[in-house]
Amino acid sequence: MPLKKIAVLVSGRGSNLQTIIDNIEKGNINGKIEIVISSKKNSYALERAANHNIEGMYIGKKNYPDIDKRNNKIIEILQERKIDLIILAGYMSILSEKLVKLYRNRIINIHPSLIPSFCGKGFYGFKVHEAVLEYGVKLTGATVHFVDEGTDTGPVILQKAVNVDSDDTVDTLSKKVLKIEHELLPLGVKMFCEDKLQVKGRKVRISID
Ligand code: GAR
């Protein structure tokens, strides 16, 4: 099976990008990262890409203030490199409908809660964990899903829960959730790259051989 050509879109720290890089280097994922695109200019994620000789690029509000031009530039880069899979690894920007339609069921996002709880507009990064603690739920977790035109509304691929303990803080909870993000995202990407994910409506079927 040919290696899947992967683009990773990032905005910050890039720890999820790092798990994908590490799993590819270990031979766990049948793919190659062709490009890392960051919506922030000097993100640590871009440094991580450079450390592994992966091409990195800044496409953000400063160099492409117009949202359509920005997304069209991203599409141009993806098409030039014949990308099979786009991974949103802590990408804090909105993708255009045009891009989502062009890459239907080929964009995977990682979200730090159990969707459909604590997701959608305004729920990103630490804000998710703040909301979880404020609500007082006893479980939270991480979700890997395909991206559709909505915010965090696409078909769910994988989920895993963690307990919210009474002494948890945003810091401890985010660490617990991040640990499972680093298990789930590479697993979902591995499955995609082995053609094991079939989407029917909202349901994702995982084939096991
Ligand atoms: C991760 O926790 C990811 O789930 C979250 O941002 C963090 C990025 O960390 N994404 C969202 O909140 C998307 N709605 P990283 O840059 O270290 O991978």
From TrEMBL:
Name of one Pfam family that matches: Formyl_trans_N
Gene: purN
Annotated source species: Maledivibacter halophilus
Catalytic activity entry: N(1)-(5-phospho-beta-D-ribosyl)glycinamide + (6R)-10-formyltetrahydrofolate = N(2)-formyl-N(1)-(5-phospho-beta-D-ribosyl)glycinamide + (6S)-5,6,7,8-tetrahydrofolate + H(+)
Family designation: Belongs to the GART family.
Metabolic or biological pathway: Purine metabolism; IMP biosynthesis via de novo pathway; N(2)-formyl-N(1)-(5-phospho-D-ribosyl)glycinamide from N(1)-(5-phospho-D-ribosyl)glycinamide (10-formyl THF route): step 1/1
Residues binding N(1)-(5-phospho-beta-D-ribosyl)glycinamide, per UniProt: 14-16
Active site, UniProt feature: 111
Protein name as catalogued: Phosphoribosylglycinamide formyltransferase
SUPFAM superfamilies: Formyltransferase
Example of a GO cellular component annotation carried by this entry: cytoplasm
InterPro entries tied to this protein: Formyl_transf_N, Formyl_transf_N_sf, GART
Purpose: Catalyzes the transfer of a formyl group from 10-formyltetrahydrofolate to 5-phospho-ribosyl-glycinamide (GAR), producing 5-phospho-ribosyl-N-formylglycinamide (FGAR) and tetrahydrofolate.
Site (Raises pKa of active site His): 152
Database matches in CDD domains: FMT_core_GART (cd08645)
Segments crossing the lipid bilayer: none
